[in-house]
Structures are given as C-alpha cells and as structure tokens.
Amino acid sequence: MPKAKIYLLVAWTFMFGCQHNSRPTAEALFHFVPQQFKQYNLQKPDAKYFLPYVLEEISGMAYYQPGIIACIQDEDGKVFFYNHKTREIENTVRFEGAGDYEGLASDGEKLYVAESNGHIYKIEIGSHGDIHKVKKYKTALKKQNDVEGLVYDPTLDKLLVACKDESSIEGKKQKGRSFYYFDLEDKKIEKKAAFNISRHDIKKYLEAHKDFEYEVNRINFKPSGIALHPINDHFYIIASIGKLMLITDKQGTIKGSIPLDPRLLGQPEGICFAPNGDLFISSEGQGDKGYILKFNMN
C-alpha cells in the first residue's frame, strides 16, 4: 500500500476512532449522583443470596425483623420469611390464592401486599408466626395501572403505590409514571397523585448535569420496586425495564440517577433497606434461582 494511503488510513482511524470511543456509554448516560447519595457501590455487591426455586419469580420484599426479609413471588399468595444470615426460609404464610402479587411493605408489625390490579392486602401475623388476620381492600387503581411497587411511609402513616403503566385514575390523565398514597386510616387511594415521574423529568435532570447530547428515546423508566431510605428519608425507585434506579425526595424531585448493571441484576423487582441503611435488591431468576444482592451502606 502506498505511504500516502497508509498515512490517510492512520489519520482517519485516529480521528473517527477516538470520536467513537469518546462517546458516552449507557452507564455514563444515566449516572449522576450528588456526593451525599454516593453511599453504595452498585457495581460490587457485598453479598449474594441465592433463593429456593419457590422464589424464582420473587417480585417484592420488605425488611421485616432483624435479619428477616419478607418476600413474595408474583403467582401465589404467600409471604416467605427469609433469614439472610442463615440463608434459609424460616417461615411461610398464605394470605390468598393464585394472583399477580408485585409489591410488599411493612410498618414493622403488619405486612401489606399490592396486587397488580390495585388490590391491597393487610396481613397481621400471630405470635406463633401464623396468619392472625387478613383484610383485602379494593382501590380505585385497576389492572391497566399495573401496580408494581409498594412502600410504607411512617411519617404519614400511609402506603405509597407505584404504577408501572397507565397512570390515570378514573379518567384523570397523568404524565409519566404515577405514585399514589393509600391512606391506612380511611383505606382508600388518594386520587391526586403524590407525584409523577415522566421521561421529560428524567431528561431535564440529566441535561442539568451533563453537557453532551443523547437519544432521549433511550430513557425508558417503568418502576418495578420502591423503598424509603431509613436515614436520608428519600425514595429509591428501581426499574427492571430501563435498568435504572432513581433517588427522589418526598415530592418526587429527582436527586440522583444510577444505572443497574443487567449482568448483576437480570430482572430487578424488589428493593428494601435494613434499619442501618444496608440496601437489598432482588432479581427474578429467569429460569434459574432468584437472588438478592446486598450492598452495605458506606
């Protein structure tokens, strides 16, 4: 090959190759967390717990008692009490038959389960670890809302419900994905959304902190789990579709955005915190055992 062509090829490779390598990766695209929220290394879990096959499709969890994580799977109305220290299921209770159960929350005593069609179950556990009482509440949310996340807010003594799909209640249109409070006193969903998170909100947040252009259609956020941090009092919301974690304040304002590595979390569905701030995220097994990853709080 003539020298002139070799020089031209080298120059072309340097110019365009460097441009290609300097483009932001998917991780860089969605990653911006202020220093006060850099408490977890989501690339390096401190522990991994493989669950029995009965929890292959683990869909929600809540920290129940010291060392005990309450778990549900999306096809059967059972709560499994998993001891992450002994790595064993210590107890199982049935609250309902077959269904599509997606969210689990605890107020420290009672458990609450959200079905995808908007039904909420209150479960009281007896002194011997058996079911003492179960109450089912039908809400204004419907199947098309596709409820996926549930968390207890002790400040308000309410449950916050996350909708994965349709955001409206009784025809009242909403933008983005909506989050509604369920009042534990009157046992009803508050029809005014607590807050909404739209693609525009995420785009606005990212563009306030990034100086490069990106394809906005790559932002795909459908909540699959939500938890309230016991120390900083912020919501941590995960999305299996979009592989993203958002940190928001109580008003739903985005304060941080972290990508979830699909190699670590194939289908992240559940999230909860221990009282000391340690973070647990669960993933369905996708044909294998489901599992929980633990991330110690720094």
From TrEMBL:
Secretion signal span: none
Record bears the keyword Zinc-finger: no
Pfam families noted in UniProt: SdiA-regulated (PF06977)
Record-linked InterPro entries: Quino_amine_DH_bsu (IPR011044), WD40/YVTN_repeat-like_dom_sf (IPR015943), YjiK/CarP (IPR009722)
Gene3D superfamilies: YVTN repeat-like/Quinoprotein amine dehydrogenase (2.130.10.10)
Major subcellular site: membrane
Compartments, as annotated in UniProt: Cell membrane
Keywords in alphabetical order: Cell membrane, Membrane
Record's keyword annotation contains Membrane: yes
SUPFAM superfamilies: YVTN repeat-like/Quinoprotein amine dehydrogenase
PROSITE patterns: PROKAR_LIPOPROTEIN (PS51257)
Name this protein carries in UniProt: SdiA-regulated domain-containing protein
Species per Swiss-Prot/TrEMBL record: Reichenbachiella carrageenanivorans
